[in-house]
């Protein structure tokens, strides 16, 4: 409208505009001066708003504008539903798209009905009620326009998916539509031809050709963002502090050795401590030969009582610093050895968040140099108004900081090999995942067995905690997928059935399962939804029948 051009003659999409969960994006549309033919070049750029003018602009699309919009041939949509067209079920469309990796939110699930007539597909799309009040703000609402293309999945050559790559002959004939009648067909160049009208059959938008292509994985991240939305706690070297050495005393049972090492006074009770900057309280328990659960409960309850006692004390300028030993992991290879101390660490972190400035945390390893440097480590900690948390390893102090997660090497599935699964290098952690052979996935089926092509696998507490004694367990007990083959005696399933159930080694492309442990996926469920149900269902069933005797 601004430049008198009613047709987007062509537009090539060079890079997707991926929006981050945080921060705004500046978008700039540049329209050049008209050429002798009257056509104008147009380009679309973006850059993150928070970087201001320092960041360069990224071009996402370029094309040509022209005048004189025309209605494409075959745009007659006054008769509705179209004569001679057969209805097509649409209930499972969005679940199928989700299984293929295309997730649409509620506002974009606008396809209401579809029909097929030869090489044509007709569809009815509508905005959800909560979006209709904004329809007038757009030439055509983005969610409505996007939904108009979803019926392409029902074209004879449709269903491969992809992202828009190039547009040709796009004309907007009316604005503010809340619903559309849509006709889709295959254009001469293999793209999609679209005509859309309102509820009276009056033209709204037409597209001579839309070509879609798969998007390279690398283009689905915003420029320079890396893993901007994923953070982890990293322990970094504590900067040198110029503050004064605090006045310290040690309190509580078992604090005599720490007091002697630091050369400060020790008091058995918190209430007996004189005025000081820091009161150090040793915590933790050695439960190697006893009941670990009882030791953790006992020590956490003991420290909780002392924390409550401390909060009732009126000495608000004095900070209680809980000192543990090997109760925190600062990275790979630094294992937690004192489980009771780890519980105390969690308790005091909660107390710190509720009462800023009253508590500190120090975790020390077993090296002599770490304990000897403790006075220097505490230097300047009283300047931190909210409290502090430190870990001392081999004489070096570290502090925790929330940092963007470092990009890790992606585990690549072996090419051309179906008999593999995801496994663990060791017990007690899911950080070190590996690809391991799974020859059992290819052996001939026995009676009552089913071979399943896995589409989704459930991550269960057993996989995450990995605390069961014995050998390292096989990951993935819940699966959802498609039946590939049935063994002798299996009558309830045939190849192609969508099923869910229990199996062994579900984090792989193919598994074998007992036919008695699988069931059809209910209509309307995605594979991801189905993969999370079996253990929940069996837990409830066991509780009701076996435990409750109902």
Note down, in words, how this protein is organized.
The protein is α+β, with helices and mostly antiparallel strands and 550 residues long. It has 4 domains: 7-66, no CATH class; 86-214, Polyketide synthase dehydratase (Thiol Ester Dehydrase, Chain A, Roll), CATH 3.10.129; 236-404, 3-Layer(aba) Sandwich (Rossmann fold); 420-546, Medium-chain alcohol dehydrogenases, catalytic domain (Quinone Oxidoreductase, Chain A, domain 1). Helices cover 17% and strands 31% of the residues. The protein has 10 helices and 26 strands. It has helices spanning 93-99, 142-150, 256-262, 292-312, 339-354, 368-372, 374-377, 461-465, 527-531, 534-547, and strands at residues 7-13, 25-31, 40-48, 58-66, 86-88, 111-117, 120-126, 163-172, 179-186, 192-197, 203-213, 231-237, 248-251, 266-267, 278-282, 319-325, 359-364, 388-393, 396-404, 420-424, 433-437, 449-458, 478-486, 498-502, 510-514, 518-520. The strands form 4 sheets. It has an 11-stranded antiparallel sheet with strand order 2-3-4-1-8-11-10-9-7-6-5. Helix 4 (292-312) packs parallel to helix 5. The N and C termini lie far apart (70 Å). The model is unreliable at 222-227 (pLDDT under 50). The chain crosses the membrane at residues 525-544. Residues 85-221 are annotated as: C-terminal hotdog fold. Residues 1-72 are annotated as: N-terminal hotdog fold. This is PKS/mFAS DH domain-containing protein. GO terms for molecular function: fatty acid synthase activity; oxidoreductase activity.
């Amino acid at each position: 409208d601004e430049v008198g051009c009613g047709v987007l003659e062509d537009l090539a999409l060079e890079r997707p505009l991926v929006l981050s969960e945080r921060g705004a994006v500046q978008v700039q549309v540049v329209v050049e001066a008209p050429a002798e033919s009257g056509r104008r070049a147009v380009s679309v750029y973006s850059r993150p708003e928070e970087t201001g003018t320092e960041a360069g602009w990224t071009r996402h699309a370029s094309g040509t504008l022209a005048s004189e919009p025309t209605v494409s041939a075959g745009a007659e949509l006054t008769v509705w539903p179209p004569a001679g067209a057969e209805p097509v079920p649409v209930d499972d469309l969005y679940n199928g798209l989700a299984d293929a990796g295309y997730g649409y939110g509620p506002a974009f699930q606008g396809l209401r009905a579809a029909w097929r007539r030869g090489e044509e597909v007709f569809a009815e799309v509508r905005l959800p009620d909560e979006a209709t009040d904004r329809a007038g703000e757009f030439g055509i609402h983005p969610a409505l326009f996007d939904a108009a293309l979803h019926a392409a999945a029902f074209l004879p050559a449709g269903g491969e998916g992809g992202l828009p790559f190039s547009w040709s002959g796009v004309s907007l004939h009316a604005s503010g539509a809340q619903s559309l009648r849509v006709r889709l067909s295959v254009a001469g160049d293999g793209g999609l031809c679209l005509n859309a009208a309102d509820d009276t059959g009056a033209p709204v938008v037409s597209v001579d050709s839309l070509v879609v292509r798969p998007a390279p994985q690398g283009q689905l991240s915003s420029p320079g963002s890396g893993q901007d939305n994923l953070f982890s706690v990293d322990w970094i070297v504590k900067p040198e502090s110029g503050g004064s050495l605090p006045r310290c005393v040690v309190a509580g049972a078992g604090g005599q050795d720490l007091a002697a090492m630091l050369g400060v006074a020790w008091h058995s009770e918190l209430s007996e401590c004189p005025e000081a900057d820091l009161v150090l309280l040793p915590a933790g328990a050695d439960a190697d030969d006893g009941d670990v659960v009882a030791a953790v409960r006992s020590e956490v309850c003991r420290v909780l009582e002392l924390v409550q006692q401390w909060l009732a004390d009126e000495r608000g300028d004095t900070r209680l610093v809980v000192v543990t030993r090997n109760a925190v992991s600062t990275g790979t290879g630094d294992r937690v050895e004192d489980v009771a101390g780890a519980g105390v660490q969690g308790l005091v972190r909660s107390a710190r968040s509720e009462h800023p400035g009253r508590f500190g945390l120090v975790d020390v390893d077993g090296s002599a140099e770490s304990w000897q440097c403790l006075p220097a480590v505490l230097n300047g900690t009283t300047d931190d108004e909210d409290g502090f948390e430190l870990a001392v390893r081999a004489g070096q102090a570290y502090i925790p900081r929330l940092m963007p997660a470092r990009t890790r090497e992606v585990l690549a599935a072996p090419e051309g090999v179906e008999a593999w699964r995801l496994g663990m290098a060791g017990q007690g952690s899911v950080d070190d995942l590996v690809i391991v052979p799974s020859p059992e996935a290819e052996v001939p089926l026995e009676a009552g067995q089913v071979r399943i092509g896995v589409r989704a696998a459930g991550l269960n507490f057993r996989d995450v905690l990995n605390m069961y004694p014995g050998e390292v367990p096989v990951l993935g007990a819940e699966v959802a997928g498609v039946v590939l083959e049935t063994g002798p005696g299996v009558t309830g399933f045939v190849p192609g059935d969508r099923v869910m159930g229990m199996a062994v080694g579900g984090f792989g492309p193919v598994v074998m399962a007992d036919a008695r442990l699988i069931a059809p996926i209910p209509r309307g469920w995605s594979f991801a939804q189905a993969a999370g149900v079996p253990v929940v269902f069996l837990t409830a069933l066991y509780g009701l029948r076996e435990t409750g005797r109902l």
